[in-house]
Design brief:
heterodimer; A: two-stranded antiparallel ribbon; 2 strands; B: 194 residues; mainly alpha; 0% strand; globular
């Protein structure tokens, strides 16, 4: 069980598909004008990712190596069509807001990347967990970006107006999408470099006393 | 649509509703393969070629195969299969008959199957209800807009190589912010309506 928790943490934080692996940029930039759309897009992609990972993992011994990409694309587009029809039936406003980006989940690089890198080599259950982890990581990144853009660009959070705030429309426009994501990824890189440095310091601190003592000893020897 | 309307539609697809800067179709290759103007031009040409051909083929597939049999809901699956097969076919054709063009575009072709600009232009044709000639013109203009965007951006990025940004902004974040500035420039066209 612990293994799966670790997998989830890996997907959402340490190895986030958008913020760290830099995959799936088109839906990330396009559907994050509102938090509502971001959640919808993220969960739709998560559903497809879990199902496609499960199926590809089940079929991994039957799919010939030469045509595997085509086979993956057929499996993925089947699930995408199912999700699209379900959304049109039950979540029509969201379906209209996301527009072409629902069918475009087919060519989302995150899904193909997980199929190729994980599901084609692992058992069904871990593959499903991997799909869930990566999907939630994708949703998390989308929500983070959409939260900033909606707050600054429209002055709302989940559609609720913030009183006394003049919105800066540029954050809703495409230019704002690129820039906000740029700043977000810069923040992530900063956090990663700081934590890496801390880990390094901890390591050297562990070694330091011994080496410092040795240095002090050698210094004393020289004095003597 | 008469000739003038088609021309206006092409202008709109090329600049006003640019695939990258207003629709975000095809951002992955735009951010990934734009380090040098020469590779960007190669990618752009390959994309233009594939989108124009796939626009024509998917139009025929949709209106001659899917619609008569009431299978419109299968369009995503059908289109992506057609595109994947087409890219493979174009690659084999170019390697056999036009080796010069193959050596220029060859390495970019396999990447194009998963370029969302190709699938989205095929879906947009159906959504907007274009006829055959309009579809081909639309695809050509839209993919030319993609090429324009990626080449201009590659030119920007070669200049940025000499810059010395803070460590956290090195690489991808700086690229994104430059893309944002370029998108701001392109948003000037969004006021142009006919």
């Amino acid at each position: 069980m612990n293994k799966y928790v670790k997998q989830l943490k890996e997907g959402i934080l340490d190895n986030n598909p958008v913020l760290v692996q830099l995959l799936g940029m088109c839906p990330t930039l396009a559907t994050t004008t509102e938090l509502k759309n971001a959640v919808g897009m993220g969960l739709a992609a998560t559903a497809v990712l879990v199902c496609s990972n499960l199926f590809i993992s089940l079929l991994r011994k039957f799919i010939p190596k030469q045509v595997r990409i085509a086979a993956y694309i057929v499996i993925i587009s089947g699930f995408v069509t199912a999700v699209e029809l379900l959304m049109r039936a039950y979540l029509y406003s969201l379906y209209q807001a996301l527009g072409l980006f629902i069918p475009l989940i087919v060519v989302n690089c995150i899904i193909l990347a997980r199929a190729e890198a994980f599901a084609s080599k692992n058992k069904p259950l871990p593959s499903m967990v991997d799909g869930l982890a990566m999907g939630l990581g994708f949703t998390f990144a989308l929500c983070l970006l959409a939260f900033v853009r909606e707050l600054l660009g429209a002055g709302t959070v989940f559609g609720y107006q913030i009183p006394g705030y003049t919105p800066m429309v540029v954050f809703i426009l495409p230019a704002g999408a690129f820039m906000t994501l740029g700043f977000l990824i810069a923040t992530v890189q900063k956090i990663r470099s700081v934590t890496a440095e801390r880990a390094k310091q901890k390591q050297t601190q562990g070694i330091k006393p011994a080496s410092a003592a040795a240095e002090a000893a050698s210094g004393e020897e020289e004095k003597a | 649509m008469n000739f003038g309307q088609i021309l206006l539609m092409m202008f709109t697809a090329l600049l006003v509703e640019n695939f990258i800067f207003s629709k975000f179709y095809g951002c992955c290759p735009f951010l990934g393969v734009s380090e040098k103007p020469s590779t960007a031009l190669g990618m752009g040409m390959a994309v233009t070629f594939v989108i124009t051909v796939s626009g024509a083929v998917t139009w025929v597939v949709y209106y001659c195969l899917l619609e008569p049999f009431g299978l419109e809901y299968l369009k995503t699956i059908a289109f992506i299969l057609v595109i994947a097969a087409l890219v493979q076919f174009i690659e084999m054709f170019l390697r056999k008959f036009i080796p010069a063009l193959y050596s220029a575009l060859g390495i970019y072709l396999p990447l194009i199957t998963t370029n969302c600009a190709v699938l989205s232009s095929a879906l947009l044709i159906v959504q907007n209800g274009y006829g055959f000639v309009e579809s081909v013109c639309f695809c050509f203009a839209a993919s030319l807009g993609f090429t324009l965007a990626i080449v201009v951006f590659a030119g920007l990025r070669t200049r940025m190589e000499n810059a010395d940004p803070p460590a956290a902004f090195k690489g991808f974040p700086l690229t994104l912010i430059a893309a944002g500035l370029l998108a701001m420039a392109f948003s000037c066209f969004s006021g142009v309506k006919f």
